[in-house]
Design goal:
Chain B: It is a peripheral membrane protein. The structure holds 2 protein chains of 2 kinds. By secondary structure, chain A is an alpha+beta fold. Chain A has 37 helices and 10 strands. The N terminus of chain B is likely disordered. Chains A and B meet through helix 3, helix 5, helix 7, helix 9 and helix 11 of A and strand 2, helix 4, helix 5, helix 6 and strand 7 of B.
């Protein structure tokens, strides 16, 4: 089909010696054109348009022809009007404007010729729509055509009405359509019925007009006789119908059919009603109309619940005997009708015990007897499943329905697998255990190559996770996470995390699961995953050593997955001591030394993939480690400290500083208020002092100080000749050390890190260190790291001084220390008199 | 997505108006103060499009009132989406609040929009039946038949579906109706002479 051959119209389609160019040349004079040049035939135009080599050429051809068509419309040539409109419709399909053909549609519809009407109605369906008032102009023509009795014309009018009829048109034409509902001709009748469906959709109040004739349509079938005139009043008619349907005889019939369907599944009930006038087309339309009515009006729903036995019978007959080969598709008799009846049964049985029970057996029969070798059968079966799941069906039937969907999952047709997955997904809440039985098949569907299928399989798999299968399911899902298409990763990852949170059997399993997600799809998890995992690990004390080791290993393998790096850095900072302790029983022994840990964190800091937040985690980890890892290796930590920022704000600052260096002020800029007043005193003190500066021998390197200045300030590469550190103060175990750095890129700058340590038995509190330098220098004090030094070697206080010395003047420094120690307040003012000469020369 | 997330929750939250809940058409109905939201009617195709592998539109049938601009936009979007799909993918996709069912026959794609609660499998049968009808009418149909006789393709569709619903499930009946109409059309056309044809009457 659709794959054969070239053109079939050869010679007859072309008018010899006629071309598009000719049209263009002539069209300036409409009269002459009409007299001499016949209008281009539709197929010639199509040919010409298809012959266009470029888009521009096509546009040219079409513009020319449209001008021609316009001219022809203007002249009001009735003979070729339909042809011109047909051409215009083709052009319209190509996307060109065609609104100027709207009025011609009206004229063609009003014409008496069938050809005109056919094209005119086609044009109306394509060019008119209810947004433009023009569409109302055809109302009258449709009215005339509906009442004239020429069947194909009635058909055209009904078709147009049901395609583009607006609410206003529907109100106007409802009486005409209603009359046609009970017309003898099945051709017109089936169209009228579906037009009624459209009218009810547009104007729900029209339900009351169409309900009585619709009820009669079924009733007529019931009694096999013609029907009387339709009655317009819904209420009285409804009562009449109810009376009729509610006779004792009728009730007996209902009960009988009911009992019968329950007891004997295979043998059809002898048809109690047959009508030669009721063709499958009309039956299908009637069912569609009833469906529409029932969805619109509760009264109709109540009314048509009474015909459930009848519908059951019709469907049973269809299933067991078949209508005719004409109406069956690959051995399934009229699947369109079956589907429509099943859909109506669904609406009638929804929330209604009695109706549901009446159709239970039939549904079981359809579910078990439908041939599923082809799509048509599966379509019916699928509709049956939908109906079973939507009505009050017996529990066994529901399981049967879910099992059908489970079988669908094994079908070789991926369309059928798709609808199965979609439907199971809807049922997974209401029929969890039935769906759960198909879990292995569902999981199998994760391997689908079509993403729309694997996405559904994923959603369904996630919905099927519960506390009893969580370990197995997670294994599958994690395998899927590793191989799944990128656009599913985020959903898969967050699904796994959520399920893990709900059903984790142990904390360790939970940690492992999150870790796995972070290592395989770290970039796809939401930000809160980091916080959740740190929270989780923090709360599981027995797993600290385990977690930090696993995270360390994961980090050693890959530092690109940001959430993973963040959690790992956090854990290393927090539990670094456990990592180095090396006595974790749960995983194979791992010998990590501090150098390695630091090197890894350094790598994270320097990696271009690291986000600012990640660097923050790494820095925090380093700071924590600086206290947690004691001993000789502290020096190593300091040396290994990498730089944070190479340029940016700091570069600006330096530029500013060098500018200010030219005009050094008398007073050093001070960062904080309390220090300001006291600094003036210090400066006074200093002014009195004079003399050469001594150069004392370097003292012990002070730990910790370099760390701080590295964190705050850059200096790449480290100064070639480090300036020796200096101990400037010691009293009762409280020590003050200075360390010096002069960044090579800015030799005028001297950075002094002041470190206060306390090896005494009492805490040092309210510690304040102030400083003063000669007026030719500029001093800036950074905020100290704290004001308390705990006893016995607790965390020292560090503070950074920035001294700008552009003239390389000899450095002099006066310090004032105040603190409380052993409940006494201590104040010390002294000049540092053995500053190394490298600090200023 | 959390476990057990309803697959169509986005659809459920959309307002559903009396004119079939189509988002673009909804405003007018709402303004007219029509009935409150209700369960939407069962089957009904919203529209059907035929287009070629090159993305050229060959037929468009709209059962919902939309402006030309909207129709063009939808067409462009769907043609792109469908053509971008690999041949081994399934025939269904979710699009806005509708389901798209498409199938390729040789060089032509048949593409239908149905509602959320409709049966995709029967829609495939509808498409197939339409192709069969075209095939019977043209005698082993190809894309060119539909290009050059696009109006016939519309006529056949209109005898098979009405207002988006299946009206006739017998192939014979559809073709008989078309034949009769064609006959009427010929009768109307035959009296015209060559002179008429060139516009001399």
């Amino acid at each position: 089909m659709l794959n054969r051959k070239g053109r079939r119209w050869g010679a007859d389609a072309c008018v010899v010696g006629f071309s598009g160019g000719g049209v263009g040349a002539e069209f300036g004079d409409p009269l002459r054109e009409r007299m001499v040049v016949p209008s281009l035939k539709l197929q010639d135009l199509i040919e010409e348009i298809r012959g266009a080599k470029t888009q521009a050429q096509e546009r040219e051809v079409i513009q020319k022809e449209c001008a021609h068509i316009r001219a022809s419309f203007r002249d009001g040539d009735p003979v070729h009007r339909h042809r011109q409109l047909a051409k215009l419709l083709y052009v319209h399909m190509l996307g060109y404007p065609a609104h100027f053909g709207q009025m011609e549609c009206l004229k063609l519809i009003a014409s008496s010729r069938f050809t005109d009407k056919r094209v005119g109605y086609l044009g109306a369906m394509l060019l008119l729509d209810e947004r433009h008032d023009a569409h109302l102009l055809i109302t009258n023509s449709i009215k005339n055509d509906l009442s004239q009795g020429i069947q194909p014309v009635q058909g055209l009018a009904l078709c147009t009405l049901s395609t583009m009829g607006s609410a206003e048109m529907c109100r106007d034409l409802a009486p005409e359509v209603e009359k046609l509902l009970l017309q003898p001709s099945p051709y017109v009748r089936k169209k009228a019925i579906l037009t009624a469906v459209h009218m009810i959709r547009k104007v729900p109040e029209l339900s009351s007009v169409f309900l009585p004739p619709c009820a009669q349509l079924l009733h007529e079938r019931h009694h096999g006789k013609a029907v009387g005139p339709p009655i317009l009043c819904f209420r009285s008619m409804d009562r009449r119908i109810e009376n009729r349907m509610g006779t004792p005889a009728h009730r007996r019939m209902v009960v009988h059919t009911h009992r019968h369907t329950r007891n004997r599944l295979s043998c059809p009930w002898p048809p109690p009603f047959t009508s030669p006038t009721l063709t499958p087309g009309i039956l299908l339309g009637t069912i569609t109309l009833i469906t529409e009515l029932c969805e619109r009006s509760p009264a109709a729903l109540r009314h048509f619940r009474k015909v459930v036995p009848q519908l059951v019978h019709i469907l049973r007959t269809l299933v067991t005997m078949g209508y005719s080969t004409e109406h069956s598709i690959s051995g399934v008799s009229d699947p369109f009708l079956q589907v429509q009846i099943l859909r109506l049964l669904r609406i009638l049985g929804r929330n209604h015990e009695e109706s549901s029970e009446t159709m239970n057996d039939l549904l079981a029969q359809v579910a078990t007897n439908t041939d599923t070798s082809r799509n048509a059968g599966n379509a019916v079966l699928f509709e049956t499943v939908l109906t079973i799941m939507d009505i009050r069906s017996a529990a066994g039937l529901r399981v049967l329905a879910v099992n059908i969907l489970g079988r669908f999952l094994l079908n070789s047709d991926r369309n059928i697998r798709y609808v199965a997955l979609t439907s199971l997904l809807r049922l997974v809440q209401s029929d969890h255990s039935a769906v759960q039985r198909h879990r292995p098949t569902v999981v199998e569907c994760l391997r689908e190559t079509d993403a729309s299928l694997s996405r559904r399989a994923l959603e369904l798999s996630l919905a099927l996770v519960n506390s009893s299968n969580v370990r197995a399911m997670m294994q599958e899902l994690q395998a899927f996470l590793e191989s799944c298409p990128p656009d599913l990763r985020a959903d898969c990852a967050s699904g796994i995390l959520l399920a893990a949170e709900r059903f984790a059997p142990t904390k360790r399993w939970h940690i492992d699961t999150i870790l796995h997600v972070l290592t395989t799809a770290g970039t796809h998890v939401r930000d809160d995953a980091v916080a959740n995992l740190t929270q989780l690990i923090g709360g599981a004390q027995e797993l600290h050593a385990y977690s930090v080791r696993r995270l360390y290993n994961a980090l050693a393998e890959d530092i690109s997955q940001q959430p993973l790096v963040q959690v790992a850095a956090w854990c290393i900072g927090e539990y670094g001591d456990l990592l180095l302790a090396g006595n974790c029983e749960e995983i194979e022994p791992l010998q990590v030394d501090e150098e390695e840990v630091l090197a890894l964190l350094e790598k994270v800091l320097q990696s271009h993939m690291s986000l600012p937040a990640t660097r923050g985690y790494a820095l925090t980890a380093l700071m924590k480690l600086s206290t947690r890892l004691c001993g000789d290796n502290k020096a190593a930590i300091l040396e290994k400290m990498p730089l944070v920022e190479r340029d940016g704000p700091q570069a600006d600052e330096e530029a500013k500083e060098s500018k200010e260096a030219a005009q050094l002020s008398e007073a050093a800029p001070v960062p904080t208020e309390p220090q300001a007043s006291q600094l003036l005193d210090l400066l006074d003190l200093l002014d009195g002092a004079s003399g050469d500066v001594q150069h004392p021998p370097p003292l012990d390197p002070s730990p910790g100080g370099a760390l701080i200045h590295l964190l705050d300030l850059p200096c790449v590469p480290p100064p070639p000749a480090p300036i020796p550190d200096l101990k400037v103060f010691e009293r009762e175990g409280v020590q003050l050390n200075l360390s010096f750095i002069r960044p090579p890129e800015n030799p005028a700058l001297l950075l002094i890190t002041v470190t206060a340590t306390n090896f005494s038995e009492g805490d040092v509190t309210h510690f304040i260190c102030q400083a003063a330098v000669p007026k030719s220098l500029q001093l800036q004090l950074q905020a100290p790291s704290g004001n308390t030094v705990p006893a016995r070697g607790g965390l020292p206080i560090t503070q950074l001084f920035r001294i700008l010395n552009p003239n390389k003047a000899p450095l002099r420094l006066k310090l004032r220390l105040t603190y409380d120690h052993f409940h006494q307040s201590v104040q010390e003012i002294f000049e540092v008199n053995n500053l190394p000469v490298e600090s200023w020369q | 997505m959390p476990a057990g997330f309803p697959p169509h929750s986005t659809t459920a939250s959309l307002p559903q108006h009396s004119d079939r809940g189509f988002p673009f058409a909804a405003a007018a109905a709402a303004a007219a103060g029509q009935a409150p939201p209700r369960p939407r009617p069962a089957a009904a195709m919203q529209f059907m499009l035929l287009f070629s592998r090159q993305g050229k539109l060959r037929l468009q049938k709209w059962y919902v009132p939309l402006s030309d601009k909207e129709k063009k936009k939808i067409t462009r979007e769907l043609v792109q989406t469908v053509l971008a799909r690999k041949p081994k993918m399934c025939s269904f996709l979710e699009w806005r609040d509708l389901k798209i069912v498409y199938k390729r026959y040789a060089s032509l794609y048949f593409c239908c929009a149905i509602e959320d609660q409709d049966n995709e499998l029967i829609t495939l049968e509808i498409i197939h039946r339409y192709v069969e009808l075209l095939d019977k009418y043209f005698g082993s149909v190809c894309e060119l038949d539909i290009i050059f006789n696009f109006e016939k393709a519309y006529f056949i569709l209109d005898e098979f579906l009405l207002g988006g619903e299946v009206q006739e499930t017998s192939k014979k009946n559809v073709l008989k109706a078309i034949e009769q109409a064609d006959l009427l059309q010929e009768e109307a056309e035959t009296p015209r002479s060559v002179l008429e044809e060139i516009g001399l009457t």
